[in-house]
Amino acid sequence: MKAFQGASIVQFVRRTTLLCLLAFAPLALFGCNYSEMRDDEAVQAYNQEFPQMPKKTIPVDGGIWVEREANPVDLADPLPSDSQTIARGAERYGFYCVQCHGPGLDGNGTVGQSFAPLPANLESSDVQDQSDGEIFYKIRFGFNRHPPLYSTMTDNETWAVVRFLRSKRGGS
Ligand code: HEC
Fold first, then answer.
1. Does residue 88's CB lie within 6 angstroms of at least one atom of ligand 1?
2. What one-character DSSP code corresponds to residue 120?
3. 102: Cβ below 6 Å to ligand 1?
4. How close is the Cα of 63 to the center of ligand 1, in Å?
5. Of 19, 20, 48, 137, which sees the most CB atoms within 10 A?
6. Does 101 contact ligand 1 (Cβ within 6 A)?
7. How far is the CA of 89 from the centre of ligand 1 (A)?
8. Do you find a cis peptide bond into 117, omega within 30 degrees of 0?
9. pTM
């Protein structure tokens, strides 16, 4: 009985393997022309020569390093201070800051309560007396326990949030 079972299993495996081979053979033969793959546009891009650059080349306009190396006080807001920018800033505040600084900007965000020191009150004179560039720089590159947000927000989004904070100067 056992021997019989063993033999039928071997037979079954053989048959299935043969069937699979027969089923996939046409696919392997005609399904895909592998020799054409290297002519594909996506592959050709990698065949191009990489432009040669002099050693120690660094970006001088744009790029995160230029911003990071700058003196924060020298950073000027490129956006117009209009209601559109402020509305955009308010929206981004809701995405990126509210969880720590709270809907009232007073530092009472739910997540922020686990921080020491607690998130700053963004309407306070401690914050509002700083220049736009200083506030921008701190949000962007972080300080103490503050998370750096340069890879989370674009610089224009960050400037828009600065404009929004400014619109709340003196509380409202
Ligand atoms: C993960 C929590 C968290 C998020 C998100 C966060 N902050 Fe903060 N923020 C803090 C904490 C904590 C402090 C206080 C840090 C300290 O004094 O060491 C702080 C302080 C600040 C200060 C005070 C700077 C100073 O000189 O004392 C500003 C301005 C500020 N945050 C702006 C923002 C803005 C704008 C956003 C959103 C773009 C943001 N933060 C997102 C936690 C957060």
1. no
2. P
3. no
4. 23
5. 137
6. yes
7. 15
8. yes
9. 0.72
Query: HSE (CB half, 13 Å, CA atoms) of 162?
Result: 26
- What are 121-159's pLDDT values in tens digits? 999 999 999 999 999 999 999 999 899 999 999 999 999
Q: What percent of the chain has pLDDT over 90?
A: 56
- The Cα 149–Cα 70 span in angstroms is 17
Tell me which residue has its CA closest to atom 14 in ligand 1: 119
Q: Which class for 163: exposed (0-12), middle (13-18), buried (19 or more C-beta within 10 A)?
A: buried
In this predicted structure, the answer to whether residue 3 has a pLDDT above a threshold of 60 is: no
Q: How far is the CA of 161 from the centre of ligand 1 (A)?
A: 12
Residue 138 tokens, joined: 């701190």
At 68, the amino acid letter reads R
